[in-house]
Amino acid sequence: MKRISIYRFVAIAVFVLICSSNLALATSPPKKGGVLPEINLPLPEDSAHRSYLGLAGSGLFQIPQIKAEVVIIEIFSMY
Prior knowledge:
Elements: H1 2-25, E1 40-42, H2 47-53, E2 60-62
Antiparallel strand pairs: 1-2
């Protein structure tokens, strides 16, 4: 009886995790002229790449921190 309860709990937990991850991925893409959501990217390990982007330090950075007049972002939809 105890084993059945554990299996039920695990099954419900897996179901909830699957449903919640699908809801998080179901957001609509940004509209033309809209604002991108905040995206944290890892800083490049190569110092030449960091200096090219105008970034310093370590850890993560966001796109508005790039020192450039224009940043072109290309988004690929693979599926």
